[in-house]
């Protein structure tokens, strides 16, 4: 049976294309016949609405994180063949506080996802984190095999990169998730017309040459519009630059992690 790889897509800064990447990368993998589960762990539920799924009370991981029910009970089909969703809801915000009062609080998500990881139903599980390094995001890092960081092509974004990498090292050195690896850095909102975008990409390449993906996600109005229609970029505008980029990123992820 092929193993399941768990990816967490994280950045403590908002507005860097994290959810856009989670949704469209998940769709790109499913399009390539990779059975994929997307978990919306952000109480804002943007990944949920971006897939045209209504937020519904009691349909997130809030209950399972509190010991009520199983993650498998929250599985929700999407309009995309091969892509399943565990939605989010506003109540998930309360988990940030409640998780901290639990025993082994950093391992809660890992434990409740174990049956899904071992089910053989999914080749890839993608977790979309809140834009903060709180309890939900830290649980996601503890549950994952690989961290994918979305990094906006601006210098302010580079400051947060070091912070999240330090957290990864802390989790590894504390033996909380010794196997966690930086799987890759996705450069988003790239504008080929500006020197700044190219300089930021070059700087990341200089420091982490084997981690940055070759695919650069462009700054795109079409990518920004698609979620408001409850669609991935492939359904909203299949020939757009954003669509081509996320298909290319999907192919890179499949090759890098041997998902075929």
List the helices and strands and how they pair.
Blueprint lengths: L4 E6 L7 H14 L4 E5 L5 H5 L11 H4 L10 E2 L5 E4 L5 H8 L8 H11 L5 E5 L6 H9 L2 E7 L2 H19 L7 E10 L4 H13 L4 E7 L2 H5 L7 H4 L4 H17 L3
Parallel strand pairs: 1-5, 1-6, 2-4, 2-5, 6-7, 7-8
Antiparallel strand pairs: 3-4
Helix pairs in contact: 1-11, 5-6
Pfam family, one: AAA_31
Protein name: Sporulation initiation inhibitor Soj
Organism: Cephaloticoccus primus
Question: Characteristics of this structure?
Answer:
260 residues, alpha/beta, Rossmann fold, 11 helices, 8 strands, 42% helix, DNA_Partitioning_ATPase
What does this structure look like?
This protein has 260 residues and is of the alpha/beta class. It has one domain (5-257): Rossmann fold. 42% of the residues lie in helices and 18% in strands. The protein has helices at 18-31, 46-50, 62-65, 92-99, 108-118, 135-143, 155-173, 195-207, 221-225, 233-236, 241-257; strands at residues 5-10, 36-40, 76-77, 83-86, 124-128, 146-152, 181-190, 212-218. Strands 3-4-2-5-1-6-7-8 form an 8-stranded mixed beta sheet, sandwiched between helices. Strand 3 and strand 4 form a beta hairpin. It is globular, with a radius of gyration of 17 Å. The mean pLDDT is 92.
Largest sheet: 8 strands, mixed
Order of helices and strands: EHEHHEEHHEHEHEHEHHH
Radius of gyration from the alpha-carbon trace, in angstroms: 17 Å
How does the helix and strand content classify structurally? Answer: alpha/beta
Kindly report the name of the CATH homologous superfamily: P-loop containing nucleotide triphosphate hydrolases
- The average pLDDT score comes to 92
Which second-level CATH architecture applies? Answer: 3-Layer(aba) Sandwich
Strand order of the largest sheet: 3-4-2-5-1-6-7-8
The CATH topology corresponds to Rossmann fold
Q: Roughly what fraction of the amino acids lie in strands?
A: 15-25%
Got a strand count? 8
Q: What is the count of helical runs?
A: 11
- The first-to-last residue Cα distance is 12 Å
- Relative helix content: 40-55%
Pfam families: AAA_31 (PF13614)
InterPro entries: AAA_dom (IPR025669), DNA_Partitioning_ATPase (IPR050678), P-loop_NTPase (IPR027417)
Organism: Cephaloticoccus primus
Protein name: Sporulation initiation inhibitor Soj
């Amino acid at each position: 049976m092929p193993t399941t790889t768990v990816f967490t897509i994280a950045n403590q800064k908002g507005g860097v294309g994290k959810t856009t990447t989670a949704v469209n990368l998940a769709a790109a993998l499913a399009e390539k016949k990779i059975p994929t589960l997307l978990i919306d762990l952000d109480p804002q539920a943007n990944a949920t609405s971006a897939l045209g799924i209504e937020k519904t009370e009691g349909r997130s991981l809030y209950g399972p994180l509190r010991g009520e029910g199983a993650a498998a009970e929250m599985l929700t089909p999407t309009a995309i063949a091969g892509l399943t969703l565990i939605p989010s809801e506003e109540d998930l915000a309360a988990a940030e506080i409640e998780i901290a009062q639990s025993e082994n609080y950093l391992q809660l998500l890992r434990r409740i996802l174990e049956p899904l990881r071992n089910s053989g139903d999914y080749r890839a599980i993608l977790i979309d984190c809140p834009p903060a390094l709180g309890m939900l995001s830290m649980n996601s890092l503890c549950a994952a095999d690989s961290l994918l960081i979305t990094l906006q092509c601006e210098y302010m974004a580079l400051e947060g990169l070091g912070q999240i990498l330090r957290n990864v090292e802390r989790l590894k050195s504390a033996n909380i998730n010794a196997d966690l690896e930086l799987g890759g850095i996705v450069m988003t909102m790239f504008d080929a017309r500006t020197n700044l975008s190219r300089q930021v990409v070059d700087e990341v390449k200089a420091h982490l040459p084997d981690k940055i993906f070759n695919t650069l996600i462009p700054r795109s109005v079409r990518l920004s519009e698609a979620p408001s229609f409850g669609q991935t970029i492939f359904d909203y505008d299949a020939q757009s630059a954003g669509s081509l980029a996320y298909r290319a990123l999907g192919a890179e992820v499949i090759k890098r992690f041997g998902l075929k």
